UniProtKB/TrEMBL annotation:
Organism expressing this protein natively: Tuber borchii (White truffle)
Similarity-based family: Belongs to the EXO70 family.
GO CC terms of this entry: cellular bud neck; exocyst
GO BP, one annotated term: protein transport
Signal peptide: none
Tree of life domain: Eukaryota
A molecular function (GO) term: phosphatidylinositol-4,5-bisphosphate binding
Stated name of the protein: Exocyst complex protein EXO70
Location(s) in or outside the cell: Bud; Bud neck
Domain Exocyst complex subunit Exo70 C-terminal: 239-603
Pfam families for the chain: Exo70_C (PF03081), Exo70_N (PF20669)
Keywords: Exocytosis, Protein transport, Transport
Length: 605
């Protein structure tokens, strides 16, 4: 059994060895095949490697070609914009609509920026075409800007706004938005990319300047026409159209500045404002120049027109400077008229002197001379323009109004900016009154001669001067010192008049010393009695003559007669003392009036 088992195992071993031998043969054959395969692989690698390398090069080339095609597409895309957008630009915003038109310009603008960055010579033609389209678009937008402005730039009636105290019209919000968009596009978008200079500020001035000028044309004409008067009467404040003209000019300039601030950047406000107001400001300057010529030709009556112009224009200039930054336009316009106005002070004083020297007659009743009335009327008219005249006198300087008159007074190169204009005006008025009184008295002494009558004439005139000061704005203008000096001149005239009355009163001056008898009665010798008789006689004669003369004088103002009567009243107490002392020693033929009678006569003066 064991032997059988061993045989089986031997047989299996033999089988396994046989298979192992076959496996070894097979392994040897596989090893030979692998060796042959390895040799073949090397041959393949040597054959494929050049092909692989070539394939890699072709891949890179393919990528470069793709990128080149993409770049070409990018270049072609902006150039295609010309053909796409040209139709829209040529049609204009009115047909395509503003929104689409601006969008088209933006696309061209972006395409142009891209081409400029590519810096390709081949794109220069397209760059030129796009720049041309942008310029064409810019011109059409400027035309639209002009048309939009013109729609709201029809001249208006200024009196409607001035009389009703309404502001001049400005652009509506919708119009402001449209104009602002156009201006912004022209001045920033197109200017930045295409280098196109915006003409919007110039267009604005070209449209709005004539609008303001035409709106104010009637007022400018009226201002000149109202200078033409048939009478030679002095100018009355406010009778010229300059006040309305100036107010309208200020209001419409202010409204225009508001428009400009809404449409333009801050840096352009001043430039656009000056350009826009240049035309109406030129007309205003011409109007003031015409007024200046008229004032020079009629200095005596119309220097007040110059003051009225300054009184109106100067404050308006200050207000506009605060609101708009206006610097010198109004000052330049006023300069000739200010020079003429300054010369009027010298003219006034010289005119007083010439008028006084040319007098050939004085009032027969010794009342107020026409010259006095005229001078005080002119001074009262000056009081209507304290601000303008004070400003002029500060520029002229203290006392320089006494210089000889010339058609145009030169303004000193420097003056005391801290000078008190009100005091200078007071001093000028006082100098004018001083010159007037001097001329009147000088002429009266030559033509009237009698001191008493000269005194009556001077009292009437100086009181008229003083009354004019007291009852007009001259009272506010002239200082206390100046009014005190006028009062002294009046007292000097009264003193002159009272000289004859003091001569009369001298007869009542008793220097006779007498002895008294029992009972207190005087005891006069014959010589002393004759002396007292002579005093009574002389007093009566002179007193009656003075009373008659005083009653014959004309005093237009009752206040003057009352004032003089009060002054003359000093004789009453003197006469009463003299009468009480000697009444019992004199006969009635010498003592014509008792105390009561004389006081009654004095009270009736």
């Amino acid at each position: 059994m064991n032997g059988l088992r061993m045989d089986e195992l031997s047989a299996e071993v033999e089988v396994l060895e046989s298979k192992l031998s076959k496996t070894a043969d097979l392994t040897t054959k596989i090893a030979l095949s692998l060796k042959k395969l390895s040799a073949s692989a090397q041959n393949v690698e040597q054959a494929v490697k050049p092909i692989y390398n070539k394939t890699q090069s072709l891949t890179v080339l393919s990528g470069n070609i793709d990128e080149a095609i993409s770049a070409i597409d990018r270049v072609r895309q902006p150039t295609d914009t010309v053909s796409k957008e040209e139709g829209t630009i040529r049609q204009g915003p009115s047909k395509t609509g503003l929104t689409e038109y601006l969008a088209s310009l933006r696309r061209i603008n972006e395409a142009l920026s891209s081409l400029k960055k590519s810096n390709l010579r081949s794109s220069q033609k397209a760059v030129n075409q796009m720049t041309g389209l942008l310029k064409a678009g810019s011109l059409q937008l400027e035309d639209l800007f002009r048309q939009a402005l013109a729609e709201d730039s029809k001249s208006v009636e200024p009196l409607h706004y001035i009389t009703k105290e309404l502001p001049f019209p400005t652009f509506q919000p919708q119009k402001i938005n449209m104009l602002a968009v156009l201006n912004d596009f022209l001045s920033s978008t197109l200017a930045a990319s295409a280098g196109i200079q915006s003409n919007a500020p110039q267009v604005y001035a070209e449209v709005r300047g004539p609008y303001i000028t035409n709106s104010l044309a009637s007022l400018a004409l009226a201002t000149v026409n109202t200078t033409r008067r048939t009478s030679a009467a002095p100018y009355d404040k406010g009778s010229n159209g300059i006040s309305v003209y100036t107010n309208a000019l200020e209001a419409i300039f202010e409204a225009e500045h508001e428009n400009i601030c809404h449409l333009f950047p801050t840096t352009e406000w001043s430039q656009v404002y000056i350009a826009t107001t240049a035309m109406p400001m030129g007309v205003f300057k011409k109007t003031l120049a015409d007024l200046n010529v008229f004032v020079k030709q009629n200095m005596a009556t119309d220097c007040f027109l110059a003051f009225d112009v300054i009184e109106n224009v100067q404050p308006a200039s200050v207000r506009l400077k605060t609101k708009t930054g206006e610097q010198k336009e109004f000052a330049e316009a006023l300069k000739p008229l200010r020079s003429t106005a300054q010369s009027s002070f010298s003219y006034f004083l010289e005119d007083i002197k010439k008028t006084g020297q040319g007098l050939i007659a004085l009032p027969l009743d010794n009342t107020v001379a026409e010259m006095t009335v005229n001078v005080m009327s002119r001074l009262r008219r000056m009081a209507d323009y304290p601000n303008a005249i004070s400003s002029l006198l500060v520029s002229l300087g203290e006392g320089n109004w006494n210089r000889p008159y010339t058609a145009s007074a030169a303004i000193p190169p420097s003056f005391d900016v801290g000078a008190d204009g009100a005091l200078l005006l007071s001093n000028f008025c006082l100098d004018a009154i001083d010159q007037l009184i001097h001329e009147l008295e000088q002429k009266a002494r030559i033509m009237i001669k009698k001191n008493s009558t000269v005194a009556v004439f001077m009292v009437n005139n100086v009181h008229f001067i003083e009354s004019n000061i007291r009852t007009s704005d001259l009272r506010k203008i002239m200082s206390n010192q100046a009014q005190a000096k006028v009062e002294k001149w009046r007292k000097d005239a009264v003193k002159m008049y009272m000289e004859q009355w003091k001569e009369c009163a001298a007869f009542l001056m008793d220097v006779t010393y007498t002895k008294q008898q029992a009972g207190g009665k005087l005891n006069l010798n014959s010589k002393e009695k004759e002396g007292v008789k002579e005093k009574f006689k002389n007093f009566n004669t002179v007193f009656e003559e003075l009373i008659q003369k005083h009653k014959s004088y004309t005093f237009p103002d009752k206040e003057v007669r009352t004032m003089l009567s009060k002054e003359i009243g000093f004789i009453g107490p003197l006469y009463g003392r003299f009468y009480d002392k000697y009444k019992d020693l004199m006969r009635d033929k010498y003592v014509k009036y008792d105390r009561h009678q004389l006081d009654t006569m004095l009270a009736q003066l």
